Amino acid sequence: MLQIDKSNLLIKKTLNERVFANPEAQLKSLDRIISDFDFTNYHVSTLDDRQLVLVSVYLQCWNDLKTYGVEAYLKSKYEKFSEVLSPVDDVEPGYNFSLVLDTSSLNSKQNEFKDELIEELSLLKRHAIASAFEKAFSRYDQLAQQFEGQDTYAEEIRAELKNEEVLVIKYRGEDECIYVKPSFDRVTVVFSTVFKDETDKIFGKVFLQEFVDARKRSVQTAPQVMFTQRDPPLDIKNAVSRRNDDDNKGYVTFVLFPRHLRKGERRDNCISYIQFFRNYFHYHIKCAKAYMHTRMRHRVREFLKVLNRAKPENVDDDGKAIDNRKTASGRKLDFGKV
């Protein structure tokens, strides 16, 4: 199955054209708007000084991310590029966060530095949403240290863990959210999603069942996956603000264990892959439907060929075949006369 890239390819292409431009060529003005999944918009443009490139991003869930320290997290993420990249206090209207890239300061930098900078800027949405996951994972570290060696089956400890805050990211409005709940031995991530078509719901169940079966067969280190329809899981029941009896709404639950939350590259990969699960999920549903439609159209064409070969070339008004065979001289054969 194809995996959606966590970085934005159009951001990469746009910045590559500007950063690795011919130094002898005259710089042109740049004004490009890029739309991504989850109603995310980017704006890459030049300022009055064409050496300065403004990169802005808009996310629908920005207000939720602000409560989890997204601005401080992004500034710390891009701090190592402070010589050429700096956040803007006066954010571009219509966007949530802006960065100014000084391309003139990149002339003395190595290509490895430039490639890393472009890669990090293409991950701007990933880093923004990751701020909420990082906060939940940090809380998991605290709880794991706090309850280490204690009887976690005690009623008072269970009551305390039950009241743990659930982080909510409304990345596609009220209907489709990400819920993250940390605990002392796991982090539970729940996606609420809406299936607009009845067939999408059926395909979705097949895909999710494959996740469950794959874990049972061979990938036993994978996160536990559960799916509930209509009713939210008990872990997030109090955090679901908008409840409706929509049969097309489902909840996909991932249970991340300590082996997935190990600090370093494994934790970063876990954040990158799990936050884009909804896009990955619906993308493959659409691909599966398109593939089946293609196969059905191909099969219909084959059936039509068979029917066309079986159809007489000439028929009369009553549907009976007309014999148009003729002799070598051109006379029509008449089998009714002797």
What does this protein structure show overall?
Helices cover 39% and strands 17% of the residues. With 338 residues, the protein is an alpha+beta fold. The strands form two sheets. The protein has a five-stranded antiparallel sheet, with helices on one face. Strands 6-7-8-10-9 form a five-stranded antiparallel sheet. The protein is flat.
Q: How is the main sheet built?
A: 5 strands, antiparallel
Instruction: Give a count of the beta strands, DSSP E runs of length 2 or more.
Output: 10
What sequence of helices (H) and strands (E) makes up the elements?
Answer: HEEEHHEEHHHEEEHEEHH
The percent range for helix content is 25-40%
Query: What's the overall geometry?
Result: flat
By DSSP (H or I, 4+ residues per run), the number of helices equals 9
Percent of sequence in beta strands: 15-25%
Question: From the alpha-carbon coordinates, what is the Rg to the nearest angstrom?
Answer: 30 Å
Structural class: alpha+beta
Give the topology, please.
Layout lengths: L8 H11 L11 E5 L5 E6 L5 E7 L3 H5 L3 H8 L7 E3 L9 E6 L8 H12 L1 H23 L8 H8 L4 E3 L8 E5 L4 E8 L3 H20 L6 E6 L19 E8 L8 H11 L1 H34 L28
Antiparallel strand pairs: 1-2, 2-3, 3-5, 4-5, 6-7, 7-8, 8-10, 9-10
Helix pairs in contact: 1-4, 3-5, 7-9
Summarize this structure briefly.
The chain has 338 residues and is α+β, with helices and mostly antiparallel strands.
Write a concise keyword list for the protein shown above:
ARPC2/4, cytoplasm, cytoskeleton, alpha+beta, 10 strands, five-stranded antiparallel sheet, 9 helices, 338 residues, 17% strand, Arp2/3 complex 34 kDa subunit, 39% helix
